[in-house]
Amino acid sequence: MSVSLPPLRKRRRGWLDLRAEISPIMYWMAGLGFIAVFFVGWWLVTALRWVGPIFLPSPAAVWQEFLRQLGDGTLWMDVRASVYRITVGWLISTAIALPIGILMGNFRFFEGLFEPFIDFVRYMPAVAFVPLTILWAGVDDGQKFVILFIGTFFQQVLMVMDNVKTVPYEMIQVSYTFGLSKWEVLRKVVLPAAMPGIWDTLRITLGWAWTYLVVAELVAANVGLGYRIMRAQRFLQTDTILLGILVIGLLGLVTDYLFKFAYRALFRWMEGRNQA
Amino acid sequence: MREVLRAIHVWKVYGVGERRPLVAIRDLNLAVGENEFVSIIGPSGCGKSTFLLMAAGLDEPSAGELLFEGEAVRGPSAKRGMVFQTYTLYPWLNVEENIRFALQKSSLGPTEQKALVEEYIALVGLQGFERAYPNQLSGGMRQRVAIARALVYRPQVLLMDEPFGALDAQTRRLMQELLLQVWETHRTTVLFVTHDIEEALLLSDRVYVMTARPGTIKAEVVVPLPRPRTVEMETSPEFLALRRRLLGLIREEVGRISV
Ligand SMILES: Nc1ncnc2c1ncn2[C@@H]1O[C@H](COP(=O)(O)OP(=O)(O)O)[C@@H](O)[C@H]1O
Ligand SMILES: [Mg+2]
Question: pTM for the complete prediction?
Fold first, then answer.
């Protein structure tokens, strides 16, 4: 349908008005620009010698370290080992948190059964479990999985429970009037309705798993990004430390965006001006 | 007239056994005949939704009996359809799939189901929106889907809890006309809850007026306006007289609400 339009005025709403939309270009440029400013600032601080290289190595030094680790294969080995540990640890946590969180969100009994215990455990620092996990699970990857599990699971299960509880009760009630059984309502209504929220929980908790990597590789490791950082600390190799931190940040960012893009593809029905 | 629904001395008390139980419904009696359109009006908080949930089998009376086709209601069933005010469409299913969802327990084959869904989409005037998702629809269109979905599996009685309560005045008008039209063609038994007097009069054969909480039936008003009805009737002297009478009954109750 072609309509002949009068000359159109540009909308005069300011880009800093409350909740005002801005162009995607501006949005992305702002984000990239901020990161650029961060790196320039870092470069300036080191180039002008405001901070000594022992405390903060220059971007160039970190880049040198990156090329070195890339060349001798260390980086690739570390990334592979860490990604493997994160993936398995997070998957184990997710595999258990999903059914339990779903039970807790749907049945008050299971909420009452598990919540006090989970609230109790989730405040315990994962790092304090390191010596115990070595006794329980040895010094292999199994111990890393246990630490990542402890760091992820207890938050994850509570978040899944909340995701399930956001499903409006009326939606459940109306489903019964179509003759569905309790389990059918759970499977065909509650789960699909809670899915977008659960997907976000998976994304956020995977991010948390990355932050527990250093704790997981604190002891009894001889490969991994977290291990590399801890070892470099002993020799004051600040360029290695920074490289490790940056790589962890970058990998976290990548996984986060993968989840976000998948979300858009999986839940196209969420888009629209009227939230149902 | 065959009786579809009957409430006999129905009570509903929330928080039984607690320190301060709340009597929501007190000794309520009513009956709905086959192919009848009956409304319940009453001040907010008088127990209208509570009663409808019990009629659907989604909640139980604390005392008394609720009979559906002569038998006590035990749990929800596809024989009693329900339309709520909001939040009941499945946002991950498009219009067509939402309506088809209600046919899961039907014995019809896939092609018959598809035809039936198309028929009901046409009935509520949503042709062209079959593939739209609820988040892309306006409030009025969403309630059209909810109505089509509640009718498509042919429940014996349709329970509607302020289905147009969240809509703007214009849209509410249009939806009332649509419901009149649908009802004239299908003559489903309807029990309709509202707090809008005009709406109740326009749509119903009979109107029950409830008291303030604890709610019970205060009066029963027969609406002898001829069918098919139109919105224009709202200015007729009969309509205005009925309106005045209902307004008076409701006013007494609103004044009685203890805060
Ligand atoms: N699940 C519940 N638990 C406790 N009190 C409730 C519950 N549901 C409703 N009530 C109370 O019962 C009364 C009637 O509520 P409701 O049936 O929703 O009124 P209406 O639909 O007429 O506005 C209100 O005072 C309300 O607070
Ligand atoms: Mg209500």
Answer: 0.90
